[in-house]
Amino acid sequence: MAIFKSLKKASQSPEDVTTLKIKVKDKLPLELLSFKNLTALYLQSDELEEIDIPLFKLENLQTLYIQSKKLELVPSHITKCPSLISLNLKNCNIKHFQVDLLQPPQVKHLDLSFNNLNKLPDHTHFFEALEYLTLANNQIQEMDDNLIHFQALNKLILDNNQLTKINFDLLKQLKSLSQISIDNNLFSDETKELITTKTGYTFEQI
């Protein structure tokens, strides 16, 4: 396994690159597509507004991390990466998450925290393999009924959103769910007490 932190150096021996960690500007370099053995890609930017190259051509890519405060849209071709297991889009400005409707579910770890989402992503079949999902620090106002499709989900983090109530019946149907975190939402004291009584959840004390 070879880890590179320079695109220039990585390009000198593309077949050896399995992990790449780089900073980019407003465009993704096409050279990324030459790393056929790449399994993990970490991209940081202050200017990137769109993902405009077909990353799904990286057939061995298992982990994808992108961070850019100007990124608002996740294009569907991201979800076409055939080996992708972990997708981290923390600290962007994502408002829309698109998925490829023909792609079978495979992603197990999804981090969409610190974005600008007000609901769960649509087309939930794509998330049926998810085991870990964090949507902390968004603008989510309710637990969408689409969560019922997340039957592999083991850990769900919804801290620092705008939730005012909890769908207890929905949570009971998530048979694999063993951990949930819902601190710092907009629950009334009465609702907090009800949640604690029904689930045993202990809210973080500030």
Tell me briefly what this model is.
The chain has 206 residues and is of the alpha/beta class.
Give a written overview of the molecule.
The protein is α/β, with parallel strands linked by helices and 206 residues long. It has 2 domains: 1-103, Ribonuclease Inhibitor (Leucine-rich repeat, LRR (right-handed beta-alpha superhelix), Alpha-Beta Horseshoe); 118-206, Ribonuclease Inhibitor (Leucine-rich repeat, LRR (right-handed beta-alpha superhelix), Alpha-Beta Horseshoe). The chain is built from 3 helices and 11 strands; from the N terminus they run βαβββββββββαβα. It has a 9-stranded parallel beta sheet with strand order 1-2-3-4-6-8-9-10-11. A two-stranded parallel sheet has the order 5-7. Strand 1, helix 1 and strand 2 (19-24) form a beta-alpha-beta unit. 27% of the residues are buried. The model has no long low-confidence stretch (mean pLDDT 92).
H-E string: EHEEEEEEEEEHEH
Tally of structural domains: 2
How much of the sequence lies in strands comes to: 15-25%
Globally, the shape reads elongated
Count helical runs. 3
Just give the CATH class of the largest domain.
Alpha Beta
Largest sheet: 9 strands, parallel
Side by side, the strands of the main sheet go: 1-2-3-4-6-8-9-10-11
CATH architecture of the largest domain: Alpha-Beta Horseshoe
Give the end-to-end Cα distance, rounded to a whole number of Å.
Answer: 44 Å
What class, by secondary structure content? alpha/beta
Radius of gyration computed on alpha carbons: 19 Å
For CATH, the homologous superfamily of the largest domain is named as: Ribonuclease Inhibitor
